[in-house]
Predict the structure.
Amino acid sequence: LEKKDLSTVGDPFDAPTYNIPEKPVTFAEGASYSVVILAGLGVAALAGYSVFKELIFEPKEYKIFGKALARVQSDSQVTARIGYPITGYGNESRNRAARQRIPNRVWTDEDGVEHVEVNFYIRGPHGAGKVYSEMFKDNSDRTWKFMYLLVEFTASLQGQVMLESYIPA
C-alpha cells in the first residue's frame, strides 16, 4: 500500500475549472445569451401575471354570476318555488369542473359599454331552474347594472320569473 501525501493533492474545488479555456466571449455571443435570458424571463413574467390575475382578481363573468345568484337567492318568488338554500352552478353534469365553468359572453357595444351575459343553473330543496342574466357597466357611475335577469323553472314548476329588466331613460 502506497500512502499519498495529502499536501500533493490539489484543491478539489479547482479541479473542474482548470480545463476551461479563458477565451473572451464575443459581443454577439454575449448578446445572444442575453436575449435568450430576457425571453425566458418574459415568459416567466407572463405566466406569473396570468396566474396572479386569475387567482387575485376575480374575472368579470364570476363577479356577474355572484351578483345574479345573490339576487336570485334573495327573491321571495324564487324561494317560494324551489325553497332555500339555493345553489348555482355552470352546467348540468356530474363533472365538477363542468359545474364550475359558467357559460358567459363578454362584449362591448357600439357606445363603448361593456356587457357580460351569464347563464347558469340553480337548485333548491324543492326544485330547479335556469337563470339567464346580462349586466352592463354603466359608464356614468362605473357600476354593474342588470339588463335582464330571468329565472326559468324546470320540471313540475314550469314557468318564468323576470326579476330585473332595464329600460333606458
About this structure: The CA atoms of residues 47 and 138 lie 32 Å apart.
